[in-house]
Amino acid sequence: MCISVGLVLLLLKLGAPLGRLFELLLPLAVCTIVLSFLLSIFLYARSFSVSSDALAPGGNTGNHLYDFFIGRELNPRIQNFDLKYFCELRPGLIGWVVINLGLLMKEVELRGSPSLAMILVNGFQLLYVGDALWNEEAVLSTMDIVHDGFGFMLVFGDLVWVPFAYSLQASFLVVHPQALSMLGAAVIIALNGMGYYIFRSSNSQKNQFRRDPNHPNVSKLRTIPTASGKKLLVSGWWGFVRHPNYLGDLLMALAWSLPCGFSHLLPYFYVTYFTVLLIHREARDERQCKLKYGASWDSYCKQVPYRIFPYIY
Ligand SMILES: NC(=O)C1=CN([C@@H]2O[C@H](COP(=O)(O)OP(=O)(O)OC[C@H]3O[C@@H](n4cnc5c(N)ncnc54)[C@H](OP(=O)(O)O)[C@@H]3O)[C@@H](O)[C@H]2O)C=CC1
Ligand SMILES: CC(C)CCC[C@@H](C)[C@H]1CC=C2C3=C(CC[C@@]21C)[C@@]1(C)CC[C@H](O)C(C)(C)[C@@H]1CC3
């Protein structure tokens, strides 16, 4: 992240036309799609030369198309370099905020200064990416690393979908400038702040509990024992709903769209897609947790009946 920040600051100091990124989005996206296909083909081919215990449970149906998409190998490595762990965060997230900055510079070229809406979108998403990179080790406990094979879906998701689909709001604002009142901005900032607080504190609470259940920050929380020896949190954020981190993430997703106003649906694509993704992801996780924890998970679901939205779902 530091190298990227240094390079971007150097480019800005040298007067590099970062705003050109706006015109280069499509060719860059096409090149990244080609790269993701090539990487996926390499990963699929090499998966037939590794031992069976290196394969992901869900990506070995024998259906070549499905296995190519989902991914056969769980954690492909070249020496000690873990390809999935690297791709999950850095290239896509850093590419996302660099594109956002280029779009902000394009707005400066067109209108002399960045709009309040563009500043909010850039700031919110820079916070999200900075948080992810600062807490990089937390990704090790996510489903993508623990359960899912590294196939075209995740390769494309990491390298193409995140930088080019997640920067849609900034792209929209270059073409459709939006006037935003200070009151409107204050409400949106409060919404993003609340979402970030729920997202960060619930993820940190679970990750802390999984690292050290006796840590003072989590040792007083109520838990449910399981046959596997692991315990399930049933108070704190994880007693509020079963995926409080998703709730916080979705509130932020809405806060990223609101600065774009209500004249177009495009800026709301991300929060819509993301809601579908997290509902599907939550159902997948429920199945895995039911298998892992059996009756203990049933007891958890009885005590914490709502999945993401309290008193709704
Ligand atoms: N911006 C984006 O595009 C995306 C963002 N995300 C974000 O990534 C973050 C991680 O999400 P995700 O990877 O889906 O999984 P989670 O971080 O929600 O982790 C799910 C795992 O947590 C453990 N767990 C669940 N309930 C409890 C409990 N009560 N007590 C203790 N442990 C529990 C289980 O694993 P175990 O018990 O084995 O430890 C479960 O499999 C979320 O904040 C999500 O919003 C996710 C996808 C896309
Ligand atoms: C293209 C497909 C239809 C969907 C692809 C899904 C991927 C884009 C997401 C799957 C899990 C992700 C995570 C993040 C980004 C999106 C993908 C790759 C994440 C790195 C975002 C930042 C968070 O702080 C995180 C917890 C580190 C996320 C981990 C999961």
UniProtKB/TrEMBL annotation:
Known function? Catalyzes the reduction of the C14-unsaturated bond of lanosterol, as part of the metabolic pathway leading to cholesterol biosynthesis.
Q: Which residues form a coiled coil?
A: none
- Residues crossing the lipid bilayer are 25-45, 150-168, 180-199, 253-279
Under Enzyme Commission nomenclature, its number is 1.3.1.70
One Pfam assignment: ERG4_ERG24
Q: Name the Gene Ontology molecular function terms of this record.
A: Delta14-sterol reductase activity
Q: What is its main location?
A: membrane
Pathway given in the UniProt record: Steroid biosynthesis; cholesterol biosynthesis
Topology versus the membrane:
Multi-pass membrane protein
Protein's UniProt keywords contain Heme: no
Report the family membership.
Belongs to the ERG4/ERG24 family.
Q: What is this protein called?
A: Delta(14)-sterol reductase TM7SF2
Native species: Neogobius melanostomus (round goby)
GO CC annotation, single: endoplasmic reticulum membrane
Q: Which InterPro entries match?
A: ERG24_DHCR-like, Sterol_reductase_CS
One Gene Ontology term from the biological process aspect of the record: cholesterol biosynthetic process
Alphabetized PANTHER family for the sequence: DELTA(14)-STEROL REDUCTASE (PTHR21257), DELTA(14)-STEROL REDUCTASE TM7SF2 (PTHR21257:SF52)
**Catalysis: reaction(s):** 4,4-dimethyl-8,14-cholestadien-3beta-ol + NADPH + H(+) = 4,4-dimethyl-5alpha-cholest-8-en-3beta-ol + NADP(+); 5alpha-cholest-8,14-dien-3beta-ol + NADPH + H(+) = 5alpha-cholest-8-en-3beta-ol + NADP(+); 4,4-dimethyl-5alpha-cholesta-8,24-dien-3beta-ol + NADP(+) = 4,4-dimethyl-5alpha-cholesta-8,14,24-trien-3beta-ol + NADPH + H(+)
| Record keywords | Cholesterol biosynthesis, Cholesterol metabolism, Endoplasmic reticulum, Lipid biosynthesis, Lipid metabolism, Membrane, Oxidoreductase, Steroid biosynthesis, Steroid metabolism, Sterol biosynthesis, Sterol metabolism, Transmembrane, Transmembrane helix
* Location in or out of the cell: Endomembrane system; Endoplasmic reticulum membrane; Microsome membrane
